[in-house]
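Why do we care about 3D structure at all? Because function follows from shape, and shape follows, mostly, from sequence. That is the central idea of this module. The next example makes it concrete: a single protein chain, its amino acid sequence, and then its structure expressed as tokens.
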Amino acid sequence: MKIDSPEKESMRLVEERLNKEYRKVINVSKRGGEYGGFDFLCEDESGNKVRVEVKGTTVEYGIPSPYHTEFVNGKMTADFMYVIYFPREIDWNSIDKSLYGSKVIFYKIPREAIIPEYLKEKKGWIISGKFKKKNKMGEYIKNFSVEQVT
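And the structure:
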């Protein structure tokens, strides 16, 4: 069974875990707006809401850079960040999902653990989806063989 990317697989694994821990789990990762800055909105038995951010990585002790919505005034938006580490030896194309459980490491990091001194502000640019379309990029396609690139 083919496994998705570390990011998608992290979302799946964390959602599976959250469903065991909370009475209600909603994936809000694509909603934006009031849900910007976290991936899951959970509710416990007492009705308390918990916001969870998810990051997947193949770099040991690595945390992918957060989006600007994930930290506000030096404070994480989510209550917890799950960082899921997938060792590089996992073969994403052939291994069965049930076989890598003991190799995957879950970090559950509370908001309070990531203090301002651990953060560095990052500014940058992204190329919008308006350009990333066939009618805009099509004329720039070049065919290279592997030999030409190396």
